Amino acid sequence: MEKICIIGAGGFAREVLCLICDIYKIKTKQAAESIYFVETDDVWRKRNVNGINVLPLSEFNPYTHKVVIAIGNPIERKKITEMLPLNTKYISLIHPSVVISESVEIAEGAVICAGTILTCNIKLGKHIHLNLHTTVGHDCITGNFFTTAPAVNISGNCKFGNNVYCGTNASFREGLVISDDVVIGMGAVVLKNIAVPGVYVGNPLYRLEK
Q1: Are 5 and 67 in contact (CB under 8 A)?
Q2: Displacement of CA 48 from its chain's centroid (Å)
Q3: Helix/strand/coil for 5
Q4: Residue among 206, 209, 180, 179 at smallest CA distance from 195
Q5: What are the phi and psi torsion angles at 178 (to 5°)?
Q6: What residues have CB less than 8 Å from 102, skipping those under 6 apart?
Q7: Strand partners, 129
Q8: Predicted pLDDT of residue 209
Q9: Which CA distances in Å does 87 have to 63, 66, 92?
Q10: Are 105 and 123 in contact (CB under 8 A)?
Q11: Which DSSP string do the residues of 32-56 spell out, in sequence order?
């Protein structure tokens, strides 16, 4: 199996560890030989999580391990990529249960969790996360650092900007265009384009004022 550095050591990072074990059909004890967690030096403390060592970012070696960033917040994920060495190599992780057609294009650093369905002619940007049971319809395009929480449903021909986060059970009508830097709340129903960055919630959808 690949040697993998998981950036992050929180809940989603532990789920990514489970994802890796499912992909390679190994137990966590076996994974510990090839995998470690990493945190930024300012928050790091020496320990292991689920039997896997946690190291400070300053000890990351881009020549020995590929990276997956297991941090749910798109903005924080972007910041991490800016901190890593230029020669860092990223790995994409796709659960064996994912339904995906040959016409789906996936950029580096993707995490695609169990039960996700990707139909056809889809283009996914760098460092995207599609959490459990996300569905993405035909001809959708996402920017970098696009993120779905579990059970998000996206109809066909939607286009998303960079740093977009979609909360659990959010749903999107066909043919929408969503701006950069948008957060969609849990259970939201999105029926219209979103051109202004911000946090949007509810059904009908509305923008939270700062």
Answers
A1: yes
A2: 23
A3: strand
A4: 179
A5: -115, 130
A6: none
A7: 111, 147
A8: 81
A9: 8, 10, 16
A10: yes
A11: TTTEEEEE-TTT--SEEETTEEEEE
Amino acid at 4: I
Q: For strand 52-56 and strand 47-49, is the pairing parallel, antiparallel, or unpaired? A: antiparallel
Taking the chain (210 residues) in consecutive chunks of 10 residues, what is each chunk's mean pLDDT?
A: 95 97 93 94 94 96 97 97 97 98 98 98 98 98 98 98 98 98 98 98 91
Three-state secondary-structure class, residue 205: coil
As given in the structure block, the two tokens for residue 49 are: 């999580």
- Tokens at 186, concatenated: 């849990």
CB 86 within 8 A of CB 104: no
Q: Quick check: helix, strand or coil at residue 158?
A: coil
Would you say 66 and 90 are in contact if contact means Cβ atoms under 8 Å apart?
A: yes
pLDDT of residue 135: 98
